[in-house]
Fold Sn-glycerol-3-phosphate ABC transporter ATP-binding protein UgpC.
Amino acid sequence: MAQVAISSVAKAFGTVKVLHEVSVDIADGQFVVLVGPSGCGKSTLLRMVAGLETVSGGTISIGDRVVNNLPPAKRDIAMVFQNYALYPHKTVEQNMAFALKLRGTDAAVVAERVKRAADILDLAPYLKRYPRQLSGGQRQRVAMGRAIVRNPQVFLFDEPLSNLDAKLRVQMRTEIKELHQRLKTTTIYVTHDQIEAMTMADKIVVMRDGRIEQVGAPLELFDRPANLFVAGFIGSPS
Ligand code: ADP
Ligand code: MG
């Protein structure tokens, strides 16, 4: 596991600035939630940590390495997306093993890691099934399984629950938190849902229009919102 330091990071697409000197420190093992309205720059920031977007200014470090110029595969992160992007023609087992095999991981190690992830995520009975034969929650677990088998230093989640129905969303929140309590992997979790943020985060980063409005523990934000925007956003029903 590792700490992540986002220091004065900026992003422009052409002449349009979408992030303005954003700084966030994420401690080793911490579960940090980036929350804010659609379009405020959450995914862009997460994608820069993942190496899927270049950084226009500032530095991002993972552990003791500045990663600005490292490709995604060298960053020791694993990302889980909203559309799980499972391979439809591969079984659950093959979906989880694929990224490891691509990296040339020893077959016995792959088998052992897939088994462990399947046990953690209650997927053992479904290993031979195809994604179309799974429920939405099971598919989301396979997507998490693909991240877990890589033993990354950092998990990155981009609105992983927004395609699920309300009941399943509540259940998966609990599952992701339990997973974090078990593995203690440093996590950056993006959502536009303030309830999700309040129930899951060790620390919340509230964003608006490419800037950070406030950083704090859930209760701190609730008790002492820095401004009307944070108060309105945290206090409004989802
Ligand atoms: P969020 O995830 O908070 O909804 P995004 O990070 O996706 O926000 O987007 C932040 C802003 O950057 C938005 O105005 C969006 O339109 C813009 N944006 C995102 N990706 C690109 C891109 N590849 N090219 C141009 N503009 C982009
Ligand atoms: Mg987004």
